[in-house]
């Protein structure tokens, strides 16, 4: 059988795909595939994209990845991948891959912020980085520096970054891009359950018979999970029912039995309607509710997470919207929604009195009667009128759908599985809507049971494992601990073997606030890891200008010259996913590890290496001294008492510990490939065969111990015995991931349920099935809908909270706009591209499939504006404008009055247009709603 290389590869791919789905293939094709794969070394790994956590198999030959296929042993994806998954390897081999450090310099070889990028050695790069850091650190103190972290960090990278920033620099100014995608879900979990992350797992998809998709285009954003939903539907078409709730028609609509298109922000009203219907129909699971829940509410006047309108950085155009951060006029719609509080009427000015500090988080216990009173105004007539999102749909049709929605949730013979992603989370009331979906499930008792539960899907590959579990947020420490909690700080300091009092008790700046602090001159040194903040942050014009024109120094770890790299003053070339060891945690609490498969190109080095190498540049006496501006005492005397010398470096104390070297030698047998027995490389531990001149000017030969294993084994101690239990390092390299808590070697599928969760069994009362054992925020004052009435706090141990939160109009709703911004703008992703497109736009096949971001528009709107398909239009907001081509027949079909523009294309940098309003609790930006004008370019 004779064939060329291309045919060989096609045959191999076909054979792999056929094998995954159990199809037999001709013996000739099988033989050809086997011949092609001669000399290939296969190993398991994890997909680089999204939070699904698909397992993949990676083939290496001659130190290059030559093939990728779905891992048939992975319980997540069962051998199949989405289109991005199949191109995991190609993202590493773009023609413009960065392979040398680049510093802006003048012709004299000096750093110059206005200079051109020129190649420098690693030592020169770190020398300048250190010089600039110490200048601003000594001027402003620990709060004057920041790190943009990532939900795409490996777990070890994130853990090392948290140690360096929080224990070393005594700053809490580290926040991940997961703030942009999962922070509202985090607050919803904390507020409701007292512990983070979903109670269920992907097995729910096959067990349930009713799927509700809220603001989550799973068909494009989580395609493997949608394939499982599709399979379940096709296997049981009469029983399995799917509802797609969205602000525009998308690919999930094709499979859904019912589609509900609602007006942006009115999901809050729909949830309250469901709450009312559950009571009206007597569908409450009273046994569950009385034993395991209480009712709660909080303040409504919490603002929108925007700048103060008096800020000198707010432009005149922006001030119309930003003024609502301080006060807004209550609309007739809101007057009805807020009537249970009895405080505001239509036309009243609502002063935003609960915007500062912890005030947006304040909540208290209320009675069931108060809750009943709160949802009473959300009648079918009112909610249908408020929420109908398609002007061309009749009110009666929309009402019927709402009734059917309630029928499905309330049916005692149906399970209920609610999925959501950015439609809930990127929301000015993102934390509230997360709380309200739990309200529905808890009232019904359809929570923490196989096939029933509210399930937040993660956006990034390790937004759970690294951002949340590790604690790379400005307010967190590992295993759900908080920097503001003295007990948590003490536990962390003991674990890290640092002096008591080292950790800063004040919460740091969240992602958007870091940008605002740079613009305000409060932060002057920032380091970007696995992230593209100057493309992914709303109102981008402000932040790009501040980075490029103000007195500051920006360092960006990058693999490609994206927007943020071009904004930077120093670029450090870094290894990509399979060029290093690592681990991710996915949306179902599944932790998965992989080995380094290939050598990084040029002088690129792992992010973990850059973090540890930079830690060598700081002596204890420089960072653990007194910082009056941050109100931090010196801990040097305590450090001496622990045996530390002030001349020691942070590297010595945080990373080069004697127990690391003793207990985790390199090489390690776990590094052997299970197929060939060959040892996998480890750039950090033992070098990788390249001649790299390191940060000290000497040839890099490795740390001499298994860094990743040492960090993992230290990190996992935080969760042991605290319902965040993780398995040991070696175990993860032998299995296809485990869902935590992992107790006695067994994973947990359904948390809080004593049949499946060992912690629920431990805490549940005798004979009871559930225990909502999360410890955070589990003591509340009592009151009514207007406020707390007691000073005493009452324990809610082992109980979840059923919240009431009102519907409120978005601060930039076009319905109330008087300046001509008459379209809603919604942003998001497309199937073919990942986030800012920095990687996927360099894959030829993905680029050809979707070469540019389009402006999806309703054909009737296009006709009214005199536009034709693919005409170039301007999309303009109060903050900026971009040009894009109109698409009226695409996969996304907006109703009249709404346009959708994805954000993967830096040439259509839509975040110049987006509003930087955030949920006041989660600080997550609302990318889904902004008022814009659209006109022909």
- The percent range for helix content is 25-40%
Radius of gyration: 27 Å
- Separation of the first and last Cα atoms: 56 Å
Q: Which stretches are low in confidence, meaning pLDDT under 50 for 5 or more residues running?
A: none
**Largest sheet: spatial strand order:** 5-4-21-20-19-6-7
Shape: globular
Main sheet specs: 7 strands, mixed
Q: Which class best fits the helix and strand makeup? A: alpha/beta
Total DSSP helices: 34
Strand content: 15-25%
How many E strands?
35
Q: Can you tell me about this structure?
A:
- The chain is an alpha/beta fold.
- Helices cover 31% and strands 16% of the residues.
- The chain contains 34 helices and 35 strands.
- The strands form 10 sheets. A 7-stranded mixed β-sheet has the order 5-4-21-20-19-6-7, with helices on both faces.
- The longest helix is centred in the N-terminal third of the chain and has 19 residues, at 122-140.
- The chain is globular, with a radius of gyration of 27 Å.
- The mean pLDDT is 96.
What key attributes describe this structure?
31% helix; 35 strands; alpha/beta; 7-stranded mixed β-sheet; 34 helices; 6-stranded mixed beta barrel
How would you summarize the topology of this molecule?
Elements: H1 5-20, H2 27-36, E1 41-46, E2 55-61, E3 64-70, E4 102-105, E5 116-119, H3 122-140, E6 145-149, H4 155-168, E7 174-176, H5 183-193, H6 204-207, E8 210-214, H7 218-221, H8 223-235, E9 241-246, E10 258-261, H9 267-280, H10 286-292, E11 293-298, H11 316-322, E12 327-329, H12 332-337, E13 349-351, E14 363-366, H13 368-375, H14 380-387, H15 395-410, E15 417-420, H16 422-425, H17 430-444, E16 453-456, H18 463-471, E17 476-477, E18 481-482, H19 486-496, H20 511-520, E19 525-528, H21 533-536, H22 540-549, E20 553-558, H23 563-567, E21 570-573, E22 582-585, E23 590-594, H24 607-615, H25 620-623, H26 636-641, H27 650-655, H28 658-663, H29 683-686, H30 707-715, H31 729-732, E24 738-739, H32 758-763, E25 779-780, E26 783-784, E27 787-788, E28 794-795, E29 800-804, E30 823-828, H33 844-849, E31 854-857, H34 859-864, E32 872-876, E33 881-887, E34 898-902, E35 930-936
Parallel strand pairs: 6-7, 6-19, 8-9, 8-15, 9-10, 11-29, 15-16, 19-20, 20-21, 30-34, 31-33
Antiparallel strand pairs: 1-2, 2-3, 4-5, 4-21, 11-14, 12-13, 17-18, 22-23, 23-24, 25-28, 26-27, 30-35, 31-34, 32-33, 32-35
Helix pairs in contact: 1-2, 4-18, 4-24, 4-30, 5-17, 9-14, 9-15, 9-17, 14-15, 20-22
């Amino acid at each position: 059988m004779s064939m060329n290389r291309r045919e060989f590869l096609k045959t191999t791919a076909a054979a792999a795909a056929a094998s995954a789905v159990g199809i037999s293939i001709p013996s000739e094709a099988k033989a050809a595939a086997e011949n092609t794969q001669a000399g290939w070394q296969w190993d398991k790994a994890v997909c680089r994209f999204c939070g699904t956590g698909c397992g993949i198999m990676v083939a290496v030959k001659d130190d290059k990845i030559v093939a990728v296929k779905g891992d048939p042993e992975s319980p997540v994806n069962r051998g199949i991948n989405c289109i991005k998954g199949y191109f995991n390897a190609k993202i590493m081999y773009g023609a413009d891959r960065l392979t040398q450090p680049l510093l802006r310099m003048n012709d004299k070889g000096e750093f110059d912020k206005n200079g051109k990028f020129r190649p420098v050695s690693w030592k020169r790069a770190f020398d300048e980085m250190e010089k600039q850091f110490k200048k601003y650190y000594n001027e402003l103190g620990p709060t004057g520096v920041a790190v943009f972290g990532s939900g795409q960090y490996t777990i070890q990278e994130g853990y090392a970054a948290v140690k360096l920033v929080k224990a070393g620099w005594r700053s809490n100014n580290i926040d991940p891009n997961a703030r942009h995608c999962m922070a509202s879900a985090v607050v919803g979990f904390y507020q409701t359950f007292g512990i983070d992350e979903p109670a269920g797992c992907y097995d729910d998809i096959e067990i349930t018979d009713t799927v509700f998709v809220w603001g989550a285009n799973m068909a494009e954003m989580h395609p493997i999970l949608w394939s499982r939903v599709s399979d379940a539907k096709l296997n049981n078409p009469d029983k399995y029912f799917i509802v797609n709730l969205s602000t525009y028609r998308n690919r999930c609509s094709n499979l859904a039995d019912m589609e509900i298109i609602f007006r942006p922000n009115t999901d809050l009203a729909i949830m309250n309607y469901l709450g009312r219907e559950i009571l009206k129909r007597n569908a409450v699971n009273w046994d569950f509710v009385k034993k395991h829940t209480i009712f709660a509410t909080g303040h409504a006047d919490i603002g929108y997470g925007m700048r103060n309108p008096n800020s000198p950085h707010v432009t005149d155009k922006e001030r119309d919207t930003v003024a609502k951060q301080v006060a807004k006029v209550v609309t007739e719609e809101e007057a009805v929604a807020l009537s249970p509080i009895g405080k505001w009427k239509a036309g009243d000015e609502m002063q935003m009195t609960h915007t500062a500090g912890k005030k947006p988080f304040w909540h208290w216990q209320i009675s069931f009667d108060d809750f009943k009173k709160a949802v009473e105004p959300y009648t079918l007539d009112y909610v249908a009128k408020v929420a109908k999102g398609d002007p061309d749909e009749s009110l009666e049709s929309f009402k019927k759908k709402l009734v059917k929605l309630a029928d499905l949730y309330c049916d005692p013979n149906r399970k209920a599985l609610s999925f959501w992603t950015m439609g809930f989370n990127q929301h000015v009331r993102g934390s509230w809507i997360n709380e309200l979906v739990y309200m529905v499930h808890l009232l019904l008792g359809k929570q923490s049971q196989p096939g029933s539960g509210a399930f937040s899907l993660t956006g990034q590959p390790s937004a759970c494992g690294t951002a949340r579990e590790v604690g790379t947020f400005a307010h967190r420490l590992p295993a759900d601990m908080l920097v503001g909690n003295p007990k948590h700080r003490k536990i962390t300091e003991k674990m890290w073997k640092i002096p008591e009092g080292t950790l800063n008790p004040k919460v740091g700046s969240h992602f958007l606030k870091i940008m605002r602090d740079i613009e305000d001159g409060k932060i002057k040194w920032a380091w970007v890891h696995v992230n593209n903040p100057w493309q992914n942050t709303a109102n981008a014009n402000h932040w790009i200008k501040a980075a490029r024109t103000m007195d500051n120094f920006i360092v960006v770890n990058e693999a490609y010259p994206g927007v943020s790299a071009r904004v930077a003053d120093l670029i450090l070339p870094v290894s990509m996913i399979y060029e290093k060891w690592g681990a991710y945690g996915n949306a179902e609490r599944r932790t998965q590890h992989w080995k380094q498969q290939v050598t990084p190109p040029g002088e690129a080095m792992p992010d973990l290496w850059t973090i540890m190498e930079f830690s060598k540049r700081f002596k204890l006496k420089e960072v653990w001294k007194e910082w009056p501006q941050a109100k931090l005492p010196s801990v040097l005397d305590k450090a001496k008492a622990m045996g530390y010398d002030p001349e020691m470096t942070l590297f010595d104390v945080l990373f080069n510990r004697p127990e690391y070297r003793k207990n985790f030698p390199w090489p390690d047998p776990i590094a052997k490939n299970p197929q060939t027995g060959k040892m996998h490389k480890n750039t950090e531990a033992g070098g990788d065969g390249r001649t790299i001149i390191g940060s000290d000017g000497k040839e890099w030969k490795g740390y001499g111990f298994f860094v990743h294993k040492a960090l993992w084994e230290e990190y996992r101690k935080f969760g042991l015995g605290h319902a965040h239990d993780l398995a040991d390092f070696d175990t993860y390299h032998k299995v296809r991931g485990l869902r935590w808590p992992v107790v006695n070697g067994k994973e947990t599928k359904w948390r809080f349920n004593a049949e499946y969760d060992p912690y629920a069994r431990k805490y549940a009362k005798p004979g009871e099935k559930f225990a909502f054992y999360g410890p955070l925020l589990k003591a509340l004052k009592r009151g009514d809908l207007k406020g707390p009435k007691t000073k005493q706090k009452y324990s809610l141990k082992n109980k979840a909270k059923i919240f009431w939160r009102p519907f409120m109009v978005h601060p930039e709703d076009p319905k109330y706009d008087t300046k001509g911004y008459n379209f809603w703008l919604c942003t998001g992703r497309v199937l073919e591209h990942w986030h800012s497109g920095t990687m996927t736009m360099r894959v030829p096949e993905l680029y050809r499939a979707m070469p540019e971001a389009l402006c999806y528009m309703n054909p009737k709107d296009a006709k009214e504006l005199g536009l034709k398909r693919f005409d170039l239009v301007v999309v303009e907001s109060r903050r900026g404008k971009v040009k894009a081509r109109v698409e009226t027949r695409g996969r996304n079909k907006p109703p009249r009055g709404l346009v959708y523009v994805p954000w993967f294309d830096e040439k259509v940098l839509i975040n110049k247009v987006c509003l930087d309003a955030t949920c006041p609790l989660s600080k997550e930006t609302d990318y889904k709603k902004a008022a814009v004008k659209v006109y022909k370019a």
